[in-house]
Design goal:
With about 260 residues, this protein is mainly alpha-helical. The chain has helices at about 5-10, 15-20, 25-30, 45-55, 55-65, 70-85, 90-95, 115-120, 125-135, 145-150, 155-165, 175-185, 185-225, 235-255; strands at about 105, 110, 140, 175. The protein folds into three domains: about 5-65, Multidrug-efflux Transporter Regulator, Chain: A, Domain 2 (Orthogonal Bundle), CATH 1.10.1660; about 70-190, no CATH class; about 200-255. The chain is built from 14 helices and four strands. The strands form two sheets. Strands 1-2 form a two-stranded antiparallel ribbon. A two-stranded antiparallel sheet has the order 3-4. β1 (about 105) and β2 (about 110) form a beta hairpin. It is flat. Keywords: Coiled coil.
Length: about 260
């Protein structure tokens, strides 16, 4: 018979990641690749099994690095900025089909890729795949593709194009050479970086507000229960989970502000 002490010693996935000093995505990939054994006690890891996992941390970090994997859309955007071409999801999938890029795992059933694997790709091979898809249109790019190359929202590229009076063809496409000239312009890239920083701060703030609202509602529920206005006690699991999420969101917002 397991004791209450033993029950508290069992670890969930979040607790195991903390114990191993890994990010949640690192633990998830480690499980997918068999580097971490499956839970042995009712969907949780016993303290003994968790201890046996500790020496595997260096292997896990070596296998997956410390940068979260990305999906096909972000992978295409990363490559677009790197090779100055309007890379699309289909091009990423072609790289996988040709054995040049590995699907490292899945998130919500969608394939994900390591950023370091994207960085290791030969730019010429990426260019060849995009050229095969676009054919004679390789030297022309739509506004959405131009925004990918610059790493900014389409609305910001539209502003740049208007400021520079960039010409378009009959179908509204821009010359790739003009877009690449924008990408090489230090003043414009600084504006893109500032826009990215502001959007990251805004997103982190939205996350903060959502978690703050959850905590306020939880405290109201506590008050209602203490005052006997409610017969249902608040869920204690919510407070710990939400505090951790709020701490993460505030840390992210702070890192972008500095």
């Amino acid at each position: 018979m397991r004791t209450e002490l033993n029950l508290r010693a069992d670890l969930g996935s979040r607790q195991l990641a903390t114990r191993l000093e890994l990010a949640g995505w690192q633990l998830r990939l480690a499980r997918e690749h068999g580097l971490i054994p499956e839970p042995d006690v009712d969907g949780r890891w016993s303290a003994e099994l968790a201890e046996r996992c500790l020496p595997r941390k260096p292997q896990i970090v070596a296998a997956f690095g410390d940068e979260p994997p990305v999906g096909a859309v972000k992978a295409a955007g990363h490559l677009a900025s790197r090779v100055n071409l309007d890379v699309e999801r289909a091009d990423v999938e072609m790289l996988v089909a040709r054995g040049e890029l590995t699907v490292i795992g899945r998130y919500q059933q969608h394939p994900v890729y390591l950023v370091r694997d994207l960085e290791a790709l030969d730019p010429q091979r990426v260019t060849e795949i995009v050229a095969a898809r676009k054919g004679p249109l390789l030297d022309r790019v739509e506004a959405r593709g131009a925004a990918l190359i610059l790493g900014c929202p389409k609305s910001l590229f539209d502003r740049f194009a208007a400021e520079r009076a960039l010409p378009t063809d009959q179908l509204g496409r821009y010359a790739l050479a003009d877009v690449r000239a924008l990408a090489a312009d230090g003043d414009l890239t600084a504006r893109v970086e500032e826009d990215q920083r502001e959007r990251a701060i805004a997103q982190a703030r939205r996350h903060e507000e959502r978690h703050e609202d959850t905590l306020r509602n939880w405290m109201l529920h506590c008050t209602a229960y203490l005052d006997r206005a409610s017969d249902d006690p608040p869920d204690p699991a919510i407070i710990g989970r939400t505090l951790r999420s709020l701490t993460t969101a505030r840390s992210a917002a702070g890192s972008h502000r500095t």
